[in-house]
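> tool_call: predict_assembly(chains=two)
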Amino acid sequence: MATATLVLTRVRIRGRIGLVLRVALVLAALALVAYPLLYGGDVWAQRISRAAIYAIIGLSINTLTGHAGQISLGHQAFVGIGAFFAAFTASRLGAPLGFGLAAAALAGTVTALLVGMVALRVTGLYLALVTLAFGLTAETTIFNWREFTGGGAGAFAPRPALVETDFAYAVLCLGVLALVLYADWRLVSTKAGRALAAVRNDEDIAATLGVNVTGYKLGAFCLSGLIAGLAGGLFAYWNQVVQALDFEFQVALVWVLMTVVGGLRSRLGVVIASSFFALLPLTLPNFLSGLPWQPPFLNEAVYHVLPPFIVVVMLLVVLRFFPGGLGQLLAPVTGPATRGSKGARR
Amino acid sequence: MGAFFALGLFQGAVYGLLAVGIVLVYKAKRVFNFAQGEFGGVAAFCAFYLTVSLGLPYWIGVVGGLAAAVAMGLAVERVIVRPLESSSRTIMLVALVGVALFAIAVTVLVARPIPRVMPPIVEGGTVDILGAAILPQQLILLAVLAVLAAAMAWFFRTDLGLAVLASSQDLRAAQVVGIGPTAVSRLVWGMAALLGGVAGLLYAPVGIFTPGFMTFTMLVPAFAAAVLGGMTSLPGAFIGGLAIGVVQNLGIYLLGQQLAVPGAAELSVFALLVLVLLIRPQGLFGKEA
């Protein structure tokens, strides 16, 4: 009896510490974003939008690979379709931004559903191959279809007056990111999240437990495609012009790498790693060439090809030493904060 | 049309050569080697440096390029593959994608992303086959592919090859009869890198080459060739490579030239890959499951 009371008290205390920790973490994260957003001018507002879009893409891959255990090396197809649909509705139909984003999300969902139907038959490494080939095909065929995407010149997506400034647009991107984070959190802490975990671990066992494997797999593809399409829509209005070149083969691979570096199923890790990968190519060359001392054999041109190199080294170090990614490194901090509300997380 | 057929056949020889390496790694380790193309990329850049930049004889370039590829293969085996042996195959795949991107990043960093022209093994004019202009280099490529595919098929019948197969089927049982897993792993990755190096050295002189030239356009058709051949079959990789090349070039002719569909090359390979996986996932020569 006494022991039970003791345990209960401990749980309550830990729950309270967890709440405090969680609030502190969220406040710290907000401060970290708010400072450059408020004092960094347009340049930083643009960078924060880009980081938020990358984070949304990372969460999209996390939904598919992290939660459902399905690999996709062709995510640029979903993001790109979203971007081109948003640009198409904006420039050809003159539709408002909300409609454009909805169209982008829908286009991403439908595309992902089609790939998901193939994924019902083709699994594992073969699925990786099919998605890779699909991404390549989307890049060269659909994104170069002149009537739809404007060919090499690209499709334009002017921002409406309300989010015309970079500051307002960054706030919009952060808002969408918050929504996606909320959706991810709700997903893992409900029945659907536990069902996806069962599918991820063993499809046959999941089926014997009464989990609709086909439905959940397709659902995961659709949700991932929806989030990716949304990110594509945001990208279209962010850049205000969309080209096939923006969705190259290498981009999709880097997105997968950033999600793995962040740590599959770790929301915080994925967001941090994605933001880092988004900002590195924009900030590192300027930072290095601004240093007072320049090594003799390095120059600006070398700094511009450094980011992909750093990204891959990070991936290899992470896989070799912390297979759980940043999420694993952050566990001592986030562990106490999330314990008690873990839901279906493993 | 006949010209596209011939072009496809010779283009397919490169896919076949890469596919032989992919099949070797898959047979031995059940891993999709996404770094296979970059073994060739590294070999081509090293050979270019030795022969063109330093002006050394061609054979030194070939030996140096192959040595660089094998060194890379052994390094990948030691630093990436062996430590990740026990992790999931998806993680291994992502790691090998990382290796390919790493090799590309290094070549961009060291060699700059400028197009280069590698001198061919045999100088001389083109040969007319079915109305297509074929370089002597491409004839050599097809012959080398046939020899290497046959050699690898023979290898899996030797004691050494059987040891590799045994090790892939049951690592523990193979260890009990004295087959060291580390030696097998080194052998397989070294051989795969050598095959990749040969592919890179033979293909680089066919056109201009840039960093990542073996990965960005060659890797997916090469995997499609391996899948079409059955993923474990070396004759399959040979025939699959040629078939993918022909299908791709007929696609370019029918879809790209007649119907003006953009990206016809990628589209036809993707369509064939999906069809094979949906209708006959064991491929042409693969065994069931």
